[in-house]
Each structure stands twice: as C-alpha cells, then as structure tokens.
Amino acid sequence: MRSYLDFEKPVAELEAKIEELRALQRSGDAIAIGEEINRIETKAALALKELYASLTPWQKTQVARHPQRPHFLDYIGQLITDFVPLAGDRKHGEDAAIVGGFGRFRGESVCVIGLEKGSDTESRLKHNFGMARPEGYRKAARLMAMADHFDVPVIALIDTAGAYPGIGAEERGQAEAIARSTEACLALGVPNVALIIGEGGSGGAIAIATANRVLMLEHAVYSVISPEGAASILWRDTTRAQDAAANMKITAQDLVRFGVVDAVVPEPTGGAHRDPVAAIAAAGEAIGSALTEFRGIDHATVRRMRRDKFAAIGRTLA
C-alpha cells in the first residue's frame, strides 16, 4: 500500500478516487467508468509531475526519508551479482548499519559499501536505522584496504541521518573512526564512486563518500546536519526545520552548483519510491559511467585526482 507525504495530499485524493472507480467497474458501466478512470489518471499524473518539479528543500528532505524509498540492499539485489558480505572490524565487533562486501557490477569485480536503514521495524532495529557505530566505519576502512590490495574499484551508497551519537559509540572513538574511514577513501589507489540515495548526513556520510565521483539522486539531501538539528541550534526551535532546510542548500541541485556533488541522477516522477526498479537502473547507469571515466588510469593519478577534487571545493565561490 502506497504511503503519501503531507504535501502529496492532492495526488493522494485523485489516486484514491481512481481506486474507488476500479472497484466499481465490475458492477457498473465498465466503458463509462473506464473513460472516467483514464481522465482522472491523466489529471493525477499531471498533478504529480507539477508537484515534483517544484519541491522545496524541506519537501525533498521528506522524499529522501520516505519509508518506501529503495535502500542499500535493494540496490545490491538489482545491481550487484555474486555479492558476498563481509562482517566485523577485527577490533571490536560487527555493525549492521554499514553493509559491505565484494561482488560483480556489470561483470566486473567491485567492493560495495553502504548504509542500510532497514525497511520494517525488525530490520530498522537490526541496522540501527542506518546510523553507524565506530566498528562500522572501521569495517569500511578494512574493506577499502582489501579493495585497494586486490585492485578492485569501490562503490559506496549513502543513506543515513548521521553516525550514531550514543555514549558507547563515543567511548569507542566515533570521531576517530570516521576520520580513519575518510582517510581510507582519500588513500585509495583504485577509483571510488559514491552515490547519495537518500539522506547524506554529516560525517556519518562523508566517511564513505569521499570519492572520485560523488553522485546524488534527484530528491536526495546531503548536509552537515539535519534541518531539525540546525533549527534546534540556530533558533532553539525544531519547528523551524523548513527554514533551516531552505537556507542550508542541501539539495542535489544546489550542491552540484557549489561543486560538492558531480552529477544528479534523475528519479522517476514522484520519487524513487514510486518506481524503485527504474530508479535503481538509472543509478546503475550513472555509476557505470563514472567508473568508466577512470579505466586505465594509474593509482597515483586516481589518488591525486580525488585529492584535487576535494581541495577545489569552495574555490569557485571565493
């Protein structure tokens, strides 16, 4: 059953009417009802297209968090074959918020690392809602070192509100683990591509998103803090999250303009949750194109290109 966001109410009403008419088709005038269904379907499709053509940053945040939006494991299922997940950081334990391993992308060996939020209560608890602990980032760094050793490119899929801020995580060195994972990204001699598929929150995201190419889905968001967190700090009022979102420039379109993100991956009309298969296929095309750019380039050059890319962020605004 489709879940609607608050701002989608006009579309929800039209689609509810369509479902009512379909239920009546068996007992009524099928031809007349069919014509009415077609008319309302056209109206609903147009309303959805117009709505998603002018989303505010706060509305994009809501879309990025949509419970039916495809998650990391959905991308693995459609894009990666022969996937073998690896667990543990070899220091403390396993963290299910970050899932990583090796598989094949379009026939080529790859290392895939991603943040998984979970899709129901059980899996959300298992994956800690996509908020990784230190052992998750240390696992990511371990897998990147393996990828570099075996000359295998790295794909990172990001969807997290941020790293887990619990006391235990802080005691085990959360900040240091994030920094080490970011350093591991920068040190890679193999190319890496990162794609923000939902939320890209703070250091919890950049720890695996410091890549040669950083891509974003059209309605994803990427920021140093959540709009609610920013509103709480700036105005001590979380109800001003909409104002914070508008001022933080967290959308893919803004971040491409600032040079933080390299490209925007289009989503189906109505967001990735409306057509996950098409959204994931488009993501696969973008990732494939990005990896192709680095084919045949030596390790030292790949590493230098990545460092130059991040060092250049912000210069165009000076």
Overall form:
globular
User: What radius of gyration results from the CA coordinates?
Assistant: 21 Å
Query: What is the element string, with H for helices and E for strands?
Result: HHHHEEEHHEHHEHEEHHHEHH
CATH-level-2 architecture of the largest domain: Alpha-Beta Complex
Give me the secondary-structure category.
alpha/beta
Q: What is the name of the CATH superfamily of the largest domain?
A: 2-enoyl-CoA Hydratase, Chain A, domain 1
Ends distance: 49 Å
The domain count comes to 2
Low-confidence stretches: none
Condensed summary:
This protein has 318 residues and is of the alpha/beta class. It is 50% helix and 16% strand.
Question: How are the SSEs placed, and which strands pair?
Answer:
Blueprint: H1 9-24, H2 30-52, H3 57-64, H4 72-79, E1 80-86, E2 98-105, E3 108-115, H5 121-126, H6 134-149, E4 154-160, H7 167-171, H8 174-187, E5 192-201, H9 202-209, E6 213-217, E7 221-223, H10 227-235, H11 241-248, H12 252-258, E8 263-265, H13 276-292, H14 299-311
Parallel strand pairs: 3-4, 4-5, 5-6, 5-7, 6-8
Antiparallel strand pairs: 1-2, 2-3
Helix pairs in contact: 1-2, 3-11, 4-13, 6-8, 8-9, 10-11
